[in-house]
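Board notes (copied after class):
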Amino acid sequence: MTQREQQRLNPDEEIIKELCVSNGVSYEKVSQEGSEILDLEMFFSGFPRMLGLSLFPGLSRLTIVGQTISVIQGLECCPLLKALWVVECRLDEISGLQNCLQLQKLYLYDNNIQRITNLEMLVNLHVLWLNKNQISEIEGLSSLVNLEELHLADNAIAKLGQSLDPNTSLQNLNLSGNKISSLKELTHLTRLSQLRELSLTDPQSSPNPVCLLYNYYTHVLYHMPHLQRLDTYDVSMKHLKDAAESTVLKKMMYYTMRGRCAQRQFDELKAKLRQHKKDQIQLPEERIWVLTHTLRNLECELSNKQGAGKKSGEPEDSDICSDREQKLQRKLDAVRDRLKIWEQRLKKLEACYQRDLALASDRKEMMVHLLLLELETVGNIRFEEGNTNDPWFTSCYDLLLSRFCAWDYKTHHINGIKINRIIRIHNQALRLRFQDKLHFLNMESPAISQNSKRHTEYLFYVPDPEHSCEGDEILHIAETGFKNADAYKALGRERAVPLSNSVSMCDRLRMTSLQKTSECDPADPLPFRHGQLIISKVFLGRNAGVKEGVPIDCKYYPKANSVYLSTDSKQHTALTAPDCDCRQRQKLWYIFDHELVLPEYIVDFEYITQDTPEHSSSSDPSSVTHVSTAVASSESLAELDLDEGALGMEPILKPHPKMLSLDEKSILTVARANVLSQITVLNLHGNSLNKLSEISRLTALQRLTLSFNDLTRLGDISHMPNLEYLDVSFNRISTLEGLRGLSRLKELDLRWNQLTRLRDDMNVLRKHTPALLRLDTQHNPWHRHKCVRLVILCLLKTLTHLDDILVTEEEAAAAAQMAARSRINQASLVAHSWTDSERPRSLSLLSSVHLLTQMSPSPWKHSHELEPGWTAKITTLNLDGQQLTRLSNLDQLVNLRWASFDNNEISHIEGLEHWPLLEELSLNCNNISRLEVSCTLQRLTRLSINSNHLQCLDGDVLDRLPNLHFLSVEDNIISSLHGLQRSRLLFELYIGNNDISTTREIFHLKTLSSLIILDLYGNLLVSKLENYRIYMVFHLPSLRALDGVAVEMCESEAAKDVFEGRLTADMVAEKLGHTNYRELSELNLQSSSIRMVDLAPANLFGNLRSINLEHNNLTSFSGLIFLPNIKMLFLNYNHIESILPRQKVQSHMSNKQILHHKVTSSGYGQQNSRLSREGESRDNQEPLMPSLEVLHLGHNGISSLLTLQLSRLTNLKALFLQGNDISQVDGLEGLQRLLELVLDRNRIKSLNESSFRGQEYLMDLRLAENRIRELNHLEPLTGLRRLFLDMNKIQDVSELEKLEVLPSLIELSVAGNPVSRRSLHRQAVVLHLSRLHVLDGLTITLEERTRAELLSNEAQVAHTQAFSIQGSSSGAADMTLPGLVPLMTRPVPLRRTSLNPGIHTLITDQQEDPHDKGRYKKQRGGVSFLRGLQNDVSFRQIRGASSHYPTVLHPTGHRVFSIYPNSDLDSRYQFHGGPRPKPPL
């Protein structure tokens, strides 16, 4: 060994010696003892290279820390190594580990590693630490299937992708301190089912940008519920997972609702476009009918002339025929030319419709994608569609118009731009990135910081179709921002983000590309008419102009953040207006750093050409109808003139008489034959036939023409074995059912009819026309078929021509494939089934079936290698669009959980009993007419049967779906919601575009306490019901969203204000359980919190006679006044203020009252203002409720009778006003038929002249428990028979004398008054009121009246004597007889005592009643007892049993005293007892 080699080896020996010394190994004995060493460590210095490891072949653990090592080497001799630390060194790459196959732990953190490589052989690796390196992409880990712990903190990783999918054993993952900014990236981790710990931020590292986003923790916990620790926090608690689950489910329901709303808007627009097309094609269709009809007539005439010319052999006749034939031929050619023009116009209109429909569909799809993006990012990206009320919308609008120059588009004849929609982008991640970058530049250059606003500009970007790698670059930019400069360079563009401040310059590449690639569109020759651009906020920073010949690259402009390129004005001199300086300001900008560009707005625009109306847009076809009509009318007038010219050419054919029916004679006449069996050709064109009763008798018929008739069916055309040609075009045929027995039919013309059921009609032809070769079905309104031609070819395989077009071999092959797919077999199951056991946790609007279809690969690689029982593994089945007619051959799918059969021809739901584990089922767009489920499906939670023919929802079927949470039956013909009350766990119900029309259907949903989303859009109920939204919110308070719009708190409050306590027909139906309103005679709704009545229409309640609404919250009669036949009305214990609601001036009404005012049916705002004007005379007020006889208004807090307007109830006979606050009796003038009036327990102090004006028929008057002192102004009560004045303040008997003006009074009660406590008041009253029969509840007997008269006479005599004695002896004292009232000064005549002995009745003209006789005998027995007690004590004893003295109504109408102690005034005239007999007037 040379000296140089020894010097070179000496440093290596020193390193090995250091290694030995550091680990306590003798360098001299290392060769002998090295094989026994298992663990080596080297810290901080002394080991610049990995040397001497061959001396330790049994090494199991190697730790190297803080060295200058740049490469891993020397481990070839350490095959047993299990743990390796090479940390805080200078490694540039991972290498030298290919022989360490038993390595389980590898720590390479704090190095300079840029890529993860050379780890493929380490299949036993469990732990890998690569923290604090320069790794930007996760790669090279696919073979590490046993990896359990992976640390990649403090690197430059921005995306995860599917790089960790193979590492299914991963349990601990640390990605802190990286550049992950999207929540969508984290969803890739959901496939790591064993992951328990995840760190995206920790105390040792900075957080990823994604950690700063809203709902970060909710998003992670929902997608990874198996996590135990997240960002060093314990998240194992169940309530955390449940909260995240609940939040996400609510968001998914909300965005599902918004997605349906977007679909609904598209459907509305599609309907408008369809109607617009219908209006546009009406004239062309009419002209085609007229011209075709004329063409057929001309052809028929020409054929007849040619036939006649052949039969005639004379030359003169031949010349005449030839000349006429030439004229016919010229006219025929002219009509054909006109017909072609109108057909071309019809095709052009159809092309315009398809173009506009495709554009609307694209916009809808974009909105759905934006909603999905919002959902996936949990609100960190939001999109706001603007309108003219938004300031930012106006700013964008003005900015775009200011940057548009019409001279730039002069060659394309574009003279304007129309902005259809502006969407604002709220991207939290991009905004944070933009702000961080701006802050960094400001810190780096203070000069830029001072002028940051001057360096900020709004620029435009339009994707270039030729240089775009994404399918929709607009959406990609809105989500992740612009690509970096290198990405644009890879696409063949400049190495920078290309932007412009001019609309024309940014859109130039798109316009050029579409002009090259697009063929000339007959509907619109301008292929780039509609476009989209992005308005971005850009920080230009230091900028410079582009140097000529220098590439646009940041390395050539090291000090610039952006560069610009001005427009070459010389190139556009010819196109620029003399006074336009737009070109001088137009620039192309190139931004080197994509993070300095923040997309903020998406703009849908449309170029306006000279021949296009300025307001034309497919987004609003209604706005252009009048413009298009005006333009079309001017064009059509010229075309119509040309039509008339062609139709007016010679010869003018004479119209032939039309046949209305078909018989043997008419057939022979038309066919010019003698017998029916000889007819082979029959032309019945242009008649008015709707039946063909005799046509089947033409057994020899070969050609039959029936165009331009009124046929609706072809059932009469049957069993015609020789028929080869049949023309039934231009009729009104709606079905081919009945057509049969046409075995030789080769050509069939069905154009211009009303056929809708494609498959059913084609099956008829397949069965009964086996030889059919040519078929024409154009211009029929086929229902829901996008590929009509292919379906027909699939069913009619013999066709050679369809719609006058030759059937190609490719079409026949495609039809055969469709026919094969229409049957469920092993091949279809293999192609459309999956075996996933769990639904992917993904924030998506898709159903489970479609989500699994999109995300999971097919589990079946080779159909010929299927193992036995493979169908039992299938959990997901997607057979959408397979033209299926039956659900067959699926009984082996016993574990099926998610199934979809959308867009098929299924008519019956069958086979569900074989799928007990089914959770979701979709049968949209089929032909199902009945909901049929024969077995109980305990696990079915989602059912969708949209766009079928359902007519009802069977409650028995829903009973078999006990856990149904989601039901969608939109676009059917359902007219009732009956049965839905069985689905008590329903959360979401979508039943839009059906036939729900009545409000009572809503009450079937009131039992669904869990219903939070309801969609009834498109039903008649929505447009018919006033205050629809708040009505629904009131009756279904659990709703959180209605018809795609969230329910606001203010709506709930408004619903309570308007509908709470509102008595409606629906409420009656709900209470009674039926809707037989016309059979209802009595209604009792006490204590129901009713505050208004709206029983409309009133004629439904025509038989209602009695209503009891006691103990409610009514303030007026409200809608009761409209009920025509009400006789008894109980309104005690309410808050009645007046019959009609008070109408106040609008400006002084509160918000709540204004809302009441809008409810017209409740009585507010319905009445003529003249009826309630305060200054109007009551005599002019119109009568109300003409049938009302009994009215109870007790305990309502009424203070004034005037405001009640009771005079309008002109037929009232009994009025109860007890327990109010009335102080004045007035306002009763109109109650001239009143028989009974109750005013007990009020605050009446006195009576005035007008109190009882007009009450001459009043028989009963109750004024007990008031404050009356004087009994004045009772003269009008000439018919009064009973008067109750108990518990008032009458003190003097003289007041009782005033009752003498009541000639009919037979009963009086003054108990409880001060006057009743004076002695002998009874005798005085009996004496003065000679016709009185009952006083204070006791019958006045003959003995009592006689005694009163005797005492009165004695008192008169004694008074006379005393007066004379007083005259003789002035000092003598006044003498009075004890017990006599000293007020009787006038002489009282002695009454006759020859009364009928034993008076048992009170009125002489009244018949005896044995029941009353017994009562009054008892009363006489108690007279002596009552006389011996003080009157006030006796009154209290009587009052202890009852607060009133009830009487009994005799059949004649008079009332007698009743001794029943428990009777109550408020219980009289109860509604269930029927009306009392009418007293005579």
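Comment from the instructor: The radius of gyration is 50 Å. The chain is about 30% helix and 15% strand.
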